[in-house]
Structure formats: structure tokens, C-alpha cells
Amino acid sequence: MNGRMETLLCCSRYALIWAWLLVPIVAVPQIRIEVGTAPTAQSAALKDQVQLALLPHPEFADIDVHITIGAVALQEELRRDEDHPIIAAYLTSTDFQAIIGAEKRPRRVTAVFANPDPRDQLTLARVLLGEHAVVGVFDSSAADSLLRPPVSNTLRSLKARSAGDINSILHQADSLDALLVLPDGVLTRDNIHHAVRTLYGRRVVLIGHSEILTRVGSLASVYVPATSIAVTVRDILTHYVATRELPPPAFVADVDVAVNARLARSLNLIVPPPSALVHAVRAGRQPP
Q: What residues pair up with 207 in beta bridges, in sequence order?
């Protein structure tokens, strides 16, 4: 567990203890929150964040909704085959599609994705590199919203024939200015450093979907803070209380941006402050 996450986890738990002391017992929600049999520091911290977000809402006390944190927790919850609504959080849109696609029968399940909308990443690439920058994305289900139909004539589709043959895959990026990293399993923990070095030599930058990807070599990333996931879960529950219907699975609107300042300097790029980038990403969702 890194020091930053350990601090966040401790702060969340202390805040949760104080909230339990200050909020009347009748206001404590009776909603089950599952982290699965293999919890991580991140999933435990997010569980605390969700509990904090729900505490001031006594209207949630009697609803029968289960919240899962992570892909493993969702799979285990579905295997129980119980008849209640499920809100799945802290899993990627790709993982959610794979898990739900394997289900034998429809269930009342929605999701709050841990990765941002890929269109937000494309907007970030445009803000950093210009409207005419050529941006690539691997042709996969994770890129459907970008490629079918294409959202831009400067967006290029790359074929990922075999994730193990990373050099032939990266060769397709020669004509690009940026490559969007999506949770599609092509760029992984095992090959990301090689990809960063190879693409840097060609002045092709990565635009990621997490803070971690920025630290390992992406020029910048749109990412979803844990607090934003917790608030979105709360909003779904509010909708459910009013309608007894779950909204469709969705990306979180309240995203943030992380920039690799050292890489930007080495490429002689002038990067606006993160607050301006966040504003541009959110503004890019609005129709002209």
C-alpha cells in the first residue's frame, strides 16, 4: 500500500467514525456495500467514501440495493443470484460489458465506471495538441463510442492483432500525434514502459485514463476521483428512491486531469493549468 493511499484510507475512516457519531442512527442507510473476497486498499477507501456520501440521506435507509466495489465483487454478487438491484462501482466499462455479457439472464444492474468517457480523452488530446492533431485508438469494444460512427476525421483506428506483438501494433502509430489508452487490454503493465519509450522517440504521446498512467509515461490523463464515484452512486440511489428504476450504466461527469509536467517540458509543450484542462474537457461535451 503506498503512503498516499494509506493516508486517504485512514482519513476516510476517521471521517466515517465522526459521521457515525454526529448523524442520528435512524439516518444510517441499510444498503449493503460489497468489496469482494479480494479487497484492495483502493476498494476499501472507496467503500468508506460511499458510506460517507450516503450517511446524510435517511431516505436510503429502507431500500434494498446492493453496491459492489470492483469487478470481483460484482461477479461474486451475481453468482449469489439474489433478486435485488445492483450498483456496480470501481470497474472499467470494458470489465462491466464482459461480466454482464456472460450473464445467463438479465438483471437489474447499473454501473459507475472507473474510467472516463473516451470522448473526454479525445477532447484532452485536442486541447493539448491542437484541433488538427491526428489521434489513434485501438479498434475494440472500448472505443465504440469513438469509432462507430467516427467522431472525427483526424481519428485513426489501429488494429490490435495480438497483444503480445506490441512492436507491430506500435508501428501503426508512426503517423499519429497521440494515442488514446483505453481499458482494452492492449497496453498493459507488462508492455506500457516499452510503449512509452518507443512512442517518445517518434514524438507520439499517450493520453491515459488514470493517474497511474500519467505517472508511468502518459502526457496527460483524464481520471475519475474516488469522491466523484461515491457522489455518482449517491445520485443513482436518489434516482432509484424517486422512480424505483435504475438509470443506465454511465461514465462519471465530475472528472479530473493529471499532467506529466516533466514530459511536457521535454517535448517543449506549453500546457495550460489542470483547472483549465478540466474546464475544457467538460465544455467539450456540450453541443456547439
A: 180, 220
